[in-house]
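In keeping with the milestone schedule agreed at the kick-off meeting, the structural modelling team has produced records for the first pair of proteins. Each record is given below as a sequence line and a structure-token line. The laboratory manager (R.T.) confirmed that both were archived under the project's standard naming scheme.
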Amino acid sequence: MSNDWKASVTVAAVIERGGRFLLVEEETPEGLRLNQPAGHLEEGESLIHAVIRETLEETAHAFEPRALLGCYMGRARSSRTGKDVTYVRFAFTGELGALESGRKLDTGIVRTVWMSADEVRACPERHRTPLVQACVDDYLAGKRFALDALFTHSSALGKAGQP
């Protein structure tokens, strides 16, 4: 194994309302794909701050995490580099907040869509990653972990000490 191997840390928001899940449709080199609002952990932020930021950027909605759904690991080809990358995804569930009217969605995000679990399950070829279905399945199975299971030492935070 290469000495420079590193996993890529990502976060995702699994949001359900009335039996439907909020997904984003995004442009990828493989075409339009579906994903939970998700993205990469950035330097100087906690996992919780990252999922709040990514949800806002990809859906224009505030998000309040209530529980950690789980931690997932998978391998996929990076659309940025074309190389295989191991992803470690921290998925959260919580409450979708207010729409920030007029806010543009992140580059590559075409739209948000609400889909039932059956609709999500029926189109695995459109999923950005197999972790999309794994997160929906775990949500439906009732998996939840307290947010205080996550600890971020202040040394990992930005200069302002943001959470």
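The second protein of the pair:
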Amino acid sequence: MQKPVEREWELTIDPDTVRLFILKAKAISAAVNDDYNDGSEHEIELDDQNHDGHHHDGLAEEESEDLTSEELRELIDDLNVDETAELVALVWVGRGDYDPAEFQEAVADARQRSNKRTATYLLGMPTLADWLEEGLEAIGA
């Protein structure tokens, strides 16, 4: 565990907002994969000659994964430029690309690289929730 950095700045993005993102990212990573088909159709044998088909529309987790993913994408897209840069910087600090003391440098680099695909970039990270948690903890937020 890293010692939180003594900071002379305030986050633009609310740490509670980041914690909400963490919860949604955890829900996405815990959901069942879309290609999960086992159990969607079964044939039930009643006796030697009678069969009955059983079908259901899939697992509720599959539907909620898409919804949660879309919700998180929309929340990220709704952030302003400063909040988006800080969110990306938190991920970079969390995965060890920057030290906590270099957070402002990470924010500046994230701001330079910002584009309209930030949500896609972040949602493509399988350990997004972990890195955000570690980033928040590292900077003492």
